[in-house]
Amino acid sequence: MDNELERRIEKVGLPAIKRHIFLCCDQEKPKCCAKEEGLIAWAYLKGRLDELQLTGQGGIYRTKANCLRVCCRGPIAVVYPEGVWYHSCHPDVLERIIQEHLIAGKPVQDYILQDNGFQV
Questions:
Q1: Could you tell me the strand order of the sheet in which 19-24 lies?
Q2: Closest residue by Cα to residue 45 from 87, 96, 81
Q3: Disulfide check for 116: which of 7, 73, 83, 91 has CB 3.0–4.6 Å away?
C-alpha cells in the first residue's frame, strides 16, 4: 500500500469504524421528503456525532447519500454492519438511532422498515 493511501485511511479513521450510517438527503430530485427536511436531518446527524465525539476514532462513520431508493417516509437511513434500514429519520428519530443503535448496539424497533439481520 502506498503512503498516501495509508495516510488517508488513518485520517478517516477506518481501522476504528464499528458502524456506518448512510442518510438519504440532499437529493437531486427529492422524493422521500422535502430537500430542506433531508438537509436538516443531515446537519443534525453530522453535528451530533461530532458533539459526542463519535466520528473518526469514535468508531461511527456517516455518509450523505443522494438516494437510497426507498423514496417514501424519509429521510431514510441504513446502518451497517447490521443492515438495519430506518424511515422518518428526522432529528428526534436520529437521536434515538444514535443513542440506542450506534452507541448501545440495539436497533430502534419503532422506526425499522427493514432489518436484514446481518450478524455482528
A1: 60-65, 19-24, 77-80, 84-86, 112-115
A2: 96
A3: 83
d(CA 15, CA 18): 9
Read out DSSP for 24-86? E-S-SS--SS-HHHHHHHHHHHHHHHHHTT-SGGGSEEEEEES--S--SSSS-EEEETTTEEE
Is there a contact between 91 and 40 (Cβ–Cβ < 8 Å)?
A: yes
Rounded CA separation 63/61 (Å): 7
- Phi and psi at 67, nearest 5°, equal -160, 130
Task: Give the pTM.
Answer: 0.91
pLDDT digits 0-9 by tens, 99-117: 999 999 999 999 999 898 7
The amino acid occupying position 93 is V
Per residue in 45-59, pLDDT (tens digit) is 999 999 999 998 899
